[in-house]
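SEQUENCE-TO-STRUCTURE ENTRY
===========================
What this section holds: a protein sequence and its matching fold, both as plain text.
Question of interest: how does this chain fold, as expressed in backbone structure tokens?
***
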Amino acid sequence: MFEILVVDDGSGAATRRVVEEMRGWRGQQLRYLNQPERGANAARNRGVGEAQGEVVVLVDDDVVAPPDWLRLLLEGLQARSCDAVTGPVRLRLHGSSPVRHEGELAAYLTGVAEPATAWPVGGGVVPVSCNMAVWRRVFDRALFDVSVSPPVEEVDWSLRAGATVAFLPAAWLWHEKGREALRVPALLRLAARRGQERGWWLRARQALPLGQRLRLAGRALLTTGRSFGHAVRQRCWGGALTAVGELSCGLALLGLLDQRRV
């Protein structure tokens, strides 16, 4: 037996109605937790604080799991000497993609095929917050920081918690993305925000030495130029996304952009 906690972070009455319709689903305990909109990390922390079990599994509202996903995730956690496990997140697009290769969207729409590491600030595997199982006691070391946002929220938490993480290739789920998320203006804004957040976090939160920041910024700006060139020559929106993300990251590393001011 397990419990299901639904944390409604200011989404409105429709979510409450759906949860009410699900009560008694397969005999599982289901609890609805409502709060004013405070962001995904605040919602995760609320769920962790209310959870009663010794294992906490986190998902988001736009994922769909195959039937054996939860079993594989929990068996993997129990079989390994680690604090948390995570798995792949496969993008499932409900609309036409503006880019030629799905991998060009992965960094911005959270498509994860292989384990990511905390480079350049650590070498461990980084969990994916919409597909992870964690021993409840690990959250006593650290909760999610409500002041940070994607793409650094998971690496920020895992570093502060000192969490050891294993990647389970078989424990995958779908990440559903609709037409609105695939519009070019929305993707460009998302790339800018995520690049800026990454650069700001490395500079302000990790306090990387100036020399290392300059090297990373130089690399990001070099990638920007190459990606813009590719975008123009090939008429490729994927190249434009990469260029915008890397430009924002490079400028934030140099202190020319601050957190989330795009």
Summary: The longest helix spans residues 210-234. The mean pLDDT is 92. The longest strand covers residues 3-9.
